């Protein structure tokens, strides 16, 4: 004869072990706080409501020359800023640690040069780590130096370039490196990049400060500006915004 007790016991034995310890109500696994902040997405290419706008096409007020504390010497025209050849890099007045960045760039429509000499600029995260900007549309160069690469560190997953003269986007998630008191690396920087909405760097570990010659290495630092490279090509930028994380 099956008693109620024996039925309950036998059915309990058939249950997986985790079920015996499982919570009994749906509410037990609901988490109500913290409540994520409400952010209003931008319409079209406009920044979301909580972004720090670094460039909206009207002025270079958020930027300075990398050669001392002087106004950014780049050209402002038609809602875009363009490298002033030979005048040097520009950087933000503000410093950043972990962030989400949106930036749009355009390499020259008049194609000249080849390899690294075609539409070269760069976005230096925390002033030290270069996300390459290059006209890599039918332009051969070393893979770890093409557009979407972490220069000389990480080849992009794909070549997501639009044609020269067309506006392109980078959306970047940056996790800054952390350092111990003695200057050693506690955790390296990490980067995720979408180029024109296509994943090109997927949580890539940064090996250290970008080097043209030799291996990258880290030097202890805190929050630092964003920097845009003057590599002698007339690369333009627009619609730059950042969200601190
Ligand atoms: Mg570059």
What does the model show?
The chain has one domain (52-244): Exo-inulinase, domain 1 (Jelly Rolls). It is 7% helix and 29% strand. It has helices spanning 4-14, 17-21; strands at residues 52-55, 63-65, 75-77, 80-82, 90-92, 99-106, 121-125, 129-133, 168-175, 178-179, 185-187, 190-195, 198-205, 227-228, 236-244. Strands 1, 3, 4, 6, 9, 12, 13 and 15 form an 8-stranded antiparallel β-sheet that branches. The chain has a 5-stranded antiparallel β-sheet with strand order 2-5-14-7-8, with no helix packed on it. The chain has a two-stranded antiparallel ribbon with strand order 10-11. Strand 3 (75-77) and strand 4 (80-82) form a beta hairpin. It starts with a helix and ends with a strand. The structure holds magnesium ion. Residues 120-122, 130, 132-133, 229, 231 line the site of magnesium ion. The site of magnesium ion (MG) has 8 residues, from strand 7 and strand 8.
Question: How many separate domains?
Answer: 1
For this structure, what is the CATH class? Answer: Mainly Beta
Largest sheet: 8 strands, antiparallel
Tell me the quaternary state. Answer: single chain
Structure described in brief:
With 245 residues, the chain is mainly beta. The protein is built from 2 helices and 15 strands. The strands form 3 sheets. Strands 1, 3, 4, 6, 9, 12, 13 and 15 form an 8-stranded antiparallel beta sheet that branches.
How do the strands and helices of this protein lay out in sequence?
Layout: H1 4-14, H2 17-21, E1 52-55, E2 63-65, E3 75-77, E4 80-82, E5 90-92, E6 99-106, E7 121-125, E8 129-133, E9 168-175, E10 178-179, E11 185-187, E12 190-195, E13 198-205, E14 227-228, E15 236-244
Antiparallel strand pairs: 1-15, 2-5, 3-4, 4-15, 5-14, 6-9, 6-15, 7-8, 7-14, 9-12, 10-11, 12-13
The site of magnesium ion has 8 residues, from strand 7 and strand 8.
């Amino acid at each position: 004869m099956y008693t109620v007790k024996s039925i309950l016991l036998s059915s309990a034995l058939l249950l997986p072990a985790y079920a015996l310890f499982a919570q009994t109500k749906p509410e037990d696994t609901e988490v109500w706080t913290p409540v994520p902040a409400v952010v209003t997405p931008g319409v079209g290419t406009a920044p979301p409501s909580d972004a720090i706008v670094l460039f909206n096409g009207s002025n270079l007020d958020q930027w300075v020359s990398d050669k001392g504390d002087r106004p950014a010497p780049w050209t402002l025209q038609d809602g875009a800023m363009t490298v002033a050849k030979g005048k040097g890099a520009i950087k933000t007045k503000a410093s950043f640690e972990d962030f989400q960045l949106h930036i749009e760039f355009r390499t020259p429509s008049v194609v000249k040069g080849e390899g690294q000499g075609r539409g070269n600029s760069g976005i230096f995260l925390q002033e030290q780590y270069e996300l390459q900007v290059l006209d890599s549309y039918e332009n051969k160069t070393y893979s770890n130096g093409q557009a979407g690469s972490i220069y000389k560190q990480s080849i992009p997953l794909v070549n997501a370039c639009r044609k020269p003269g067309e506006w392109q986007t980078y959306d970047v998630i940056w996790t800054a490196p952390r350092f111990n008191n003695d200057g050693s690396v506690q955790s390296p920087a990490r980067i995720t990049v979408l180029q024109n909405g296509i994943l090109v760097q997927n949580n890539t570990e940064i090996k250290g400060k970008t080097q043209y010659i030799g291996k990258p290495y880290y030097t202890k630092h805190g929050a630092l500006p964003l920097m845009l490279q003057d590599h002698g090509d007339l690369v333009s930028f627009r619609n730059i915004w950042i969200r601190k994380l």
